[in-house]
Amino acid sequence: MKSAFKFILNTIPRPLLIRLSYVVRPVLALALKGNTFTDPIDGKSFRSFLPYGYGTQRNNVLSPSTLSLERHRLLWLYLKNETDFFTAPKKVLHFAPEQAFYKRFRNQKNLEYTTTDLLSPLADVKADICNLPFADNSYDLILCNHVLEHIPDDTKAMQELYRVLKPGGMGIFQIPQDLNRATTFEDDSITDPKERAAIFGQYDHVRVYGRDYFDKLRSIGFTVTEDDYTQKIAPELVERYCLAKGEIIPVCRK
């Protein structure tokens, strides 16, 4: 059964997977029901999570019920435990809205919630992150996670994020990051999709961010907190929620 799930999840294009997930999720959740791991987003428990990954598979990372990955569950816990995201009135801009969050955030009465992306079927506004159609100082909170590694001119994208964030507002800009690497690596001469996947981790990534990512955000004007949030969660819950120990949440303020 696991091998069949692995094949399905790695051969279906992401937009189609989003549409199919409405049918597939209940089947996966029922098939893997158990008590070993729990998805904190919906509170459901399973005997195992699903494998996921481009090239190298990671085991027990994809929730059968919400289709969340480690980063989604970590962000959910951070927003729930460390912010007033679920209670205070906020104007929120969400880039490339994740399936695990979309309906939940949309249904929150306290949020004025806008989604944006060039291609996602879940986007309210189709827009280029480097040329946003939003006024200066518009949003209390911006979520832009696992987007910047796809953007050739990430400096311009960061400047646009800064521009549309309200003074005093907060942005969370998660990215895949190699914390063993001091400086970010990019090479535009690498164009073969297989080679890009091998070097950058995915065929449509344009760089591997290093530890200097946080300083680049600071150079744009953000005040950045590098929150190693799994250190604040009990080790048994890190394991139970299938989180990536040591993942940093970049909390950016204007």
UniProtKB/TrEMBL annotation:
Keywords on this record?
Answer: Methyltransferase, Transferase
Name the CDD domains on file: AdoMet_MTases
Domain of life according to the entry: Bacteria
Record has Methyltransferase as a keyword: yes
One Pfam family it belongs to: Methyltransf_11
Reply yes or no: does the keyword Transferase apply: yes
UniProt-recorded Gene Ontology molecular function terms? S-adenosylmethionine-dependent methyltransferase activity
Q: Which InterPro entries match?
A: Methyltransf_11, SAM-dependent_MTases_sf
- Per the UniProt entry, the signal peptide is none
Q: Which residues form the Methyltransferase type domain?
A: 122-172
A single BP term in Gene Ontology: methylation
PANTHER family for this protein:
METHYLTRANSFERASE
Q: What is this protein called?
A: Class I SAM-dependent methyltransferase
Taxonomic classification: Bacteria, Pseudomonadati, Bacteroidota, Flavobacteriia, Flavobacteriales
